[in-house]
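Hi support team,

I'm opening this ticket because the web form for multi-chain structure prediction keeps timing out on my end. I have pasted the exact lines I submitted so you can reproduce it. The total is 909 residues across two entries, so I didn't expect it to be a heavy job. Is there a limit I'm missing, or should I split the entries? Thanks in advance, R.K.
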Amino acid sequence: AMAELEEGDISAQLNDYEELKRLCLQIKRDRNPSVIVFIGTCTTEIIKMDLEGLAPKLEAEIGIPIVTARANGLDYAFTQGEDTVLAAMAHKCPDKAPVMEAEKEERNAISKLLNFGRKKEDVAAEQSEYVDHTPLVLFGSLPDPVVTNLTLELKKQGIKVSGWLPSKRYTELPVLEEGYYVSGVNPFLSRTATTLMRRRKCKLIGAPFPIGPDGTRAWIEKICSVFGIEPKGLEEREAQIWENLEDYIKLIRGKSVFFMGDNLLEISLARFLIRCGMTCPEIGIPYMDKRYQAAELALLEKTCKQMGVPTPRIVEKPDNYNQIQRINDLKPDLVITGMAHANPLEARGINTKWSVEFTFAQIHGFTNARDILELATRPLRRNNNLKELGWEKLVKEEAKI
Amino acid sequence: MKLAYWMYAGPAHIGTLRIASSFKNVHAIMHAPLGDDYFNVMRSMLERERDFTPVTASIVDRHVLARGSQEKVVDNITRKDAEENPDLIVLTPTCTSSILQEDLQNFVDRAQLEAKGDVLLADVNHYRANELQAADRTLHQIVQYYIEKARKQGNLPEGKTEKPSVNIIGISTLGFHNQHDCTELKRLMGDLGIEVNEVIPEGASVKNLKNLPRAWFNLVPYREIGLLAGRYLEAEFGMPCVDITPMGVVETARCIRKIQQVINAQGADVDYEEFINEQTLYVSQAAWFSRSIDCQNLTGKKAVVFGDNTHAAAMTKILAREMGIHVVWAGTYCKYDADWFREQVSEYCDEVIVSEDNGAIGDAIARVEPAAIFGTQMEHHVGKRLDIPCGVIAAPIHIQNFPLGYKPFMGYEGTNQIADLVYNSFTLGMEDHLLEIFGGHDTKEVIHKGISADSDLSWNKEAQAELNKVPGFVRGKVKRNTEKFARDRGFSEITLEVMYAAKEAVGA
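Hello R.K., no limit was hit. The queue was backed up. Here is the completed structure from your submission:
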């Protein structure tokens, strides 16, 4: 919900702490959540409301944990909001406290009960499926099925995922001990990565992101290499996936794609689409963390070389107006863009795919590679269906922009 | 602070942007942080606009916070002026810029020195006005600016048009069925022999605003937007302002009679009674509908109404006065104009509710258990939860409420549309009851669908749980594909691995 600031709040006639307390108590009464997340906005930044300072006091008083994330439009774009929230959550993850041990025992007791009737060897066998390695925690918010899927992918290599930030419930946040390995599944989580390294003393596995079969393979390989595991059957698996994608790839091979840039997934998606045989003149991106995305950038470069296409121009914080001029000049076959530009571009005969869909669709892992192409080829398939109708440009005079 | 999950009216700058982007060749520049330009998304998506929305942002970021906007706003205005040659650029403050308290007027003055077009600062305060109030004010501000400009330059046209004529004021982008209402109103004026002088702001050019005084009178169909401009023109030029919303048979007649009165007072000699009679009896079906057996069945049925002032008031009167429906309560979220609403509807409903709190409205609906709701998309959701049908009559609305087909709410065709909306809402409700009494459409239990009937496959617990997470509408397909895959390969148990392998194999 929104704690809507009123004029009295701005001019400090009302007391921030009292106001927040009143609303938090109301939320506690109505919903009884296990955590409240304060999202700092532009306004709270400007009036310098000390949310980080207020939270611990309030937390103590009302008895619900409060996580503060400053996800405002002054500093961040879109998916970076998730980054600030996860970075704040990373502080709240338990380090292996004795309390947790006891709880673990208890859980084991329960699982023992659940395992009742199963042979002891089975349980032991389950354990031995994994290689003995330093615990690995993955970070990035993904839909449940994708979490299960990626966890299983690593299990095939004998790697056990000890936890996932975020977890389904706040109360189940993973244990983060000094020396644990962490790996990000999304390209926009640089703050979270930094927090995990600097504050929680975890070791970051910098890998390309598991988007597309090439990315997924590179991601698993990198994790395996850190743990000294020889990856099994990945090459065949990747080849198999590519083979199954052929019907979609046929549609886009040799075509060009232009990313206007708004969700930070652009580098990974471009790398995958170039591997599919597309060319890419420009990747717009709101913010480029060259260190966190280093492995992904390297893979992009390598992919371009292998496919014999020029490396895309990466434009950080693009100017949309100028981009549209470039789109008019380049006439790309596909523009991946926000909804503000999609309809106007379509009306001018340029195929678009709405970028936000990539944020909410399941695009990670081997299994979901097809879903990315399902999205990317949809405008092309649609236009193939409508090809004979003869109305492509639906604006009267050539618009000025 | 107040806790809000849903809001009925948007922030002030949305109202200003709605007005600015309704005009032709007017550009708005928002003084706003990154992301506040989601207005463009709303317009592009809801209105299915073919053109780029003429709104850009002069971004407020950390640097601006530290040092002020300095040259940035001025540069952005002059850049846009050069790029697109708009007639007018409206600098639009947001909640963020209201508290930065920069001297935006100074930026506007400086930019005006360089810009070829006109530059204005929208005079709206985020903390004191909502979307609707801001839209009303901005329209007034722009009209006033161009009238005064013409007056200064001495090219304000003299006199009235030869034949009776009207300005239609308040049609705007993202307004509820505004485009269709506008067409219907123009047609109505045509039928009445009245020329349409100007329609503002939708599709109008600011260059033509100086012609506004040539009309014989102004028609302001919506209570929320246009009244300030109408009153201003009344005060400046003595132009009568007809502010009766022609929605419903009775109100449309009242509006036409008022028009007759104001133009006859200026020397026209018209009698519209014949026209009203003809339209009411034979063009609009609504009068006949209220006599028909269908409508008889609605007598005394309970309904609640909630929306903006214009639509909630008009609907309440239509339901109570024209269809004999029992309106238990009628409500508005236009708190700032609540007195008007009370005065309009209090004789047609048992109770009047004025609230911006969606939770309170939901509770009020649950309390009276009406047979139908007429409200916004938010009441539509409440209706879904409570299993009560809802006809949407006002913003907030989503893309379904921007129909491609002709669906005015105003004028005589509007009365037909409303009658359909009301009747369809209620019959659905009745059908539901009948279904309940007779236990549903198909009382035989379906045991199996398709090939799963002879399934000898077992799903292990994890796979079953995973299957249950698949959205319902594709679950059947995923299940069938997976089982087919498993059978083809001779698996007898379906595990998570089998499920994913199946997905990869067939792209299910």
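A quick check on our side: Residues 411-438 of chain B form the longest helix (28 residues). Let us know if the file doesn't open in your viewer.
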